[in-house]
Every structure is written in structure tokens, then in C-alpha cells.
Amino acid sequence: MEENLPKSRYNVAVIGGGTGLPVILKGLKKLDANISAVITVADDGGSSGAIRDYINVVPPGDIRNCMCALSDADPTLIELFQYRFNTDDDFLAGHAIGNLLIAALKEMKGSMSEAIDFLSRFMKIRGQILPAAPEALVLNALFEDGTIAIGESKIAHHRKKIQEVIVTTTSGDEAVKASPRVVDAILEADLIVLGPGSLYTSILPNLMVKEIGEALLKTDAEVVYICNIMTQLGETENFTDSDHVEVLHQHLGACFVDTVLVNTTEVPRDYILTQPNEEYLLQVKHDFKGLRNAGCRVISSEFLSMKQGGAYHDTDRVVEELGHILNTTKLHRKNASDVNVY
Fold it and tell me: Does the keyword Cytoplasm apply (predicted)?
């Protein structure tokens, strides 16, 4: 989508999904950079899950949210795109208008890439939105006790320690192929940002697509991981920041994360004790020695923002740091011999 990619000083690829990715994308629009958002297609819950069950389409929810984050359209149009039908609307209950538009355009255009490109022009997207794969994928979790959970939305409910996650096609084959332009976006990037987002269900589903994982090990870009502020029940209970990175390195079989952004501000105790639905558990503990042993540079700062009743990353502070990395860090050229095998 060349018309949406004006000549800028840098290329930045952001990989993830869930609620964390759009928060960072909004801020990245301020940088002198072409932005590529690589988004997970393994979501099988909520409106996205219902749509992918009935229509041959990748789950549109994360795509919709990232479009809104990168959109320069009229705020009223963005609000309409995000509007979700009320629960008493029978068949349409819970569906966002944007999800339905994405699904409809995919049928009209014949491919998700063409549908997103068309809608991106309409929504005045600054950058490009790239589903990780051209088809909906299935996330499988192998637990340490040998049992397996199938489906992204089911993994956390088991409350077991995850040994690894595997991504397959809906027919059970290995997920190999990335969507058009994804590999190029990674290989041409000056900076690659992972997260913030759920480690096992938002970030790793992208990396476990074979072509994406291979591209991350080849890229010359600086790879930055934005570590989560809170642990998550059923995923990262009792995890330190170095545990998060260790899981990433184990899954790709190499130490590929160059820099880790870590929040040092303490989350208010009252907030932790009043968490609804036990979505979060505790604040992620620090292990700076473990991060350095994994070959990572550590940037720690007050990245916490308590807003909208939750503990989030402060968009401005995080993007300021990412901009500093782009502007002042001499990006190291890497090749296969430079990547430490895990």
C-alpha cells in the first residue's frame, strides 16, 4: 500500500495483538517512521471468534483496533467503526461494526490483504496493517503435565504451567506462510517492537508462524520487547521480566531480543486487590541480571500509567524511549553467526 507509506526516516514493525498493541501504535504515529503492524490471527473469542466460525476470514477484532489506532479519519467515523451492538440486538449482539465491515470486504475483494488495503485508504491509516497469516490459525498450548489445550480463548482457563505453544492451520498443519508483505516489513525494519501484550496468546502466535520466526532471526533491526507490567493468570503467573524473555528465546531457539523496556513504578496495592475477574495477578518482578545474561540491554523507567481503571503502559513515555533508540542507537548489523543459539 505505497500511498500510505510516505518516505520517512525509519521503518518500524510492531508485532502483537490484544489491547496493548493499539496503545503503542497511537503514539508511534508521532515518530518519523513508516509503521507496519503485524497482528495475530489466532483469536477465537468474542465477536472475532464468532465471525471466524461462520465466515472464512481471519479474526477481525485486533485488526479493527489497530486500524483505529493508526487512523487519521474523522473521530465520528472511528467511533462508528468501533461501535458494538447492544446485547439485546439478538443476532448482532456483541459484534462491532468494524468487524462486520472487514469480513464483508474480505468476501467482496477475495482476499484479506485487499480488503484491509481498501479499508485502510477509507480510514486514512498511517502505515500498514498486516495480519500475521493469510488465514485464521489455531493456537495450541502444551502444558508441563503433558496435556494440551486447543484454542487461544481456552488456554488461560486451565491454570497450568505452559511448556510451549504451537500454531497450526485449521486443518492441523504447521503454520508456515505469513501474509504478503509481513516478511519484507520485518527484514526492512530499523526497529521491531514486540508487545506489550499477552506473552503466550498475543505475541507468540505471531512468532510461531514459521516465516515470521525465521525473519526475526535474520533481520538487522533492533528488536525491542516491551515487558508486561502485570502477570496474567493461566499464562505468566509468578513470572519475572527475564522469564518472559526466556520463553521468547526458547520458542525461536535463539537469543534474538536486543533490548527490553521494563517498568519500575510500583502498581498501587489497592488496584491489585480489587481486580475484577482475576484478569491480573501480581506485578511482574525484576531480574535484571537474568535479562543481561540473555544478552539484552535493559531500559528501566516509570512506564506505568493508571488510567481507565487499569494499569497500562504510558504511551508517551514508551514511544519517547523507542524514538530515542531509533535516533541515537547505532543499530547493530546482525547475521546468522551473530545470533546466539539458545
Answer: yes
